[in-house]
Specification:
Distance between the termini: 60 Å
Shape: globular
CATH architecture of the domain at 3-74: Orthogonal Bundle
Number of helices: 8
Order of helices and strands: HHHHHHHH
Largest sheet: none
């Protein structure tokens, strides 16, 4: 598995652990609600669950946490840059827009003469 997928699985696992902790739940509590073993949940939270986590399993875990599944699979800009380093940041977009505006505002070399 390539490194970006490993990082992605670790981020999903970290989000599960984060929301579980916010809910004051143990791994055993969540595992019971999601109908999986505690050891399977532990591996998922560590990003080491057979290099694969099914969407169905994520639905079950999200339901056990009483959160929207999208929260586990939505990433902010910083998180995306960990596994997608060439992901353009907002500041890159702003720089490109500024450059484009400056090009439009500058008179062409031929019109100066």
């Amino acid at each position: 598995m390539d490194i970006s997928k490993k990082i992605l699985f670790k981020q999903i696992g970290a989000k599960i652990a984060y929301y579980r902790t916010l809910r004051n739940m143990t791994q055993k509590d969540l595992a019971k609600r999601a109908n999986i073993s505690r050891s399977a949940l532990s591996r998922i939270e560590c990003g080491k669950y057979n290099d694969n986590v099914s969407v169905s399993l994520l639905f079950d875990i999200a339901e056990g946490l009483r959160i929207d599944t999208a929260l586990l699979m939505t990433f902010n800009e910083t998180e995306k840059q960990m596994w997608w380093p060439e992901f353009p940041s907002e500041s890159d977009d702003e720089i490109m827009e500024d450059d484009e505006q400056n090009e439009e505002e500058e008179p062409a070399e031929d019109s100066k003469q």
